[in-house]
Amino acid sequence: MLNLDTVDPRVDLNLVWGARSEFGDEDGELLLSLSGDLQDSLTEVLLAHGIEPREGSVVADLTIITVIGFVGPGLVGSLGLATSEQTLERLHRRDRGRDSDDCDRGDWLRELANQVLGRLKAHLLFRGLRIRLALPQSIRGMRLSPDQAQARRLSWSASCGDDGPLLAWLELERSEGLRACPGPPIRALSAGQVAFF
Amino acid sequence: MPYLKVLIVDDSQTVRDSVREVLTAVGICVIEAADGEEGRQLIDLTPDISVVLCDVNMPQMDGLSMLEQVKRHPEHAGLPILMLTTDGDPALVRRARDAGASGWIVKPFQDHLLLAAVRRVGQAGGQRAAK
């Protein structure tokens, strides 16, 4: 068993945070929206890679986890993706159309997480929340288990058909005054969009 | 089509492979760097680069810092640099535009749009290389 709280991707951000508070009941609407945003972001990115996800449950042993930290005014968090080696191998082959080694697959999952968080950032911008992203980090092990007891963690389990399950989660903490932080909605560029200057 | 040499700067081997497959399939030469510092050095050492595709969030030196450093040199002022990133934040897009980038592409990219963008800005890079 692995408690992800011991693998904190935020340490590299070198930021000192003041008093934090957990999300309270009054944040329910925001959390519900973010949960939908997570699902939409993952679905959008997987579809772009030729993988059609549907909601499912994770039954396979998780053996690889990728986490990316992020920070914004009044908000700190991380996005995580986890799956099994077998599923990762199938998903990678489906996207890239060839066999791969461990290094290829790990990099592929980190880039997938990066793209999901990029889409999630677009959703957050539209809610007036701007975040900065850290670099993705991966860990491998046997029967890894993200700590599900964290009340602030939003998760979504996707079944990628016969390819197997993929678990995505979003961990959030806010500092006091998050409510004052959101600005007007900001429209980010969409995935695949090209802008010339 | 004129000869094009594209430098892809991205810390993800997956992205570098994807870009290389799309571009080399139509005869475009591709060279690679894994971060902004390596990319900046390759640009200095390789005068016939036609187009640079550059990620934003990278170790060592991020893509926007690389863009700003490269564009400060007069000999690179005409080098087309397209940012290729998961981030569509308009504040970052403005920073890239103000620093002299030629465009911004949001990953995951579509192969035909990436190729069209490289060809569109590549002409200016080819003219730079011919000088």
Task: Tell me what the structure shows.
- The complex is a heterodimer of chains A (197) and B (131).
- With 197 residues, chain A is an alpha+beta fold.
- Chain A has a domain at 39-144 and 159-175: Chemotaxis protein chec.
- Chain A has three helices and nine strands; from the N terminus they run βαβββααβββββ.
- The longest helix of chain A is centred in the middle third of the chain and has 25 residues, at 102-126.
- Chain B has one domain: Rossmann fold, CATH 3.40.50.
- Chain B has five helices and five strands, in the order βαβαβαβαβα.
- The A-B interface holds A 45, 48-49, 96, 103-104, 107-108, 110-111, 114-115, 117-119, 121-122, 125, 130, 133, 135, 186-197 and B 11-15, 17-18, 57-59, 85-91, 93, 96-97, 101-110, 113-114, 116-117, 120-121.
- Strand 9 of chain A pairs antiparallel with strand 5 of chain B, so a sheet runs across the interface.
- The oligomerization state is heterodimer
Class by helix and strand content of chain B? alpha/beta
Mean pLDDT of chain A: 77
| H/E series of chain B | EHEHEHEHEH
> What distance separates the N and C termini of chain B?
18 Å
Provide a compact summary of the structure:
Chain A has 197 residues and is an alpha+beta fold.
Write the layout of secondary structure elements.
The complex is a heterodimer of chains A (197) and B (131).
Chain A: E1 20-21, H1 28-48, E2 54-55, E3 62-72, E4 75-83, H2 85-96, H3 102-126, E5 132-133, E6 137-144, E7 153-159, E8 165-175, E9 194-196
Antiparallel strand pairs in A: 1-8, 2-7, 3-4, 3-5, 3-6, 4-8, 7-8
Helix pairs in contact in A: 1-3
Chain B: E1 5-9, H1 13-24, E2 29-33, H2 36-45, E3 51-54, H3 63-72, E4 81-85, H4 90-99, E5 103-106, H5 111-130
Parallel strand pairs in B: 1-2, 1-3, 3-4, 4-5
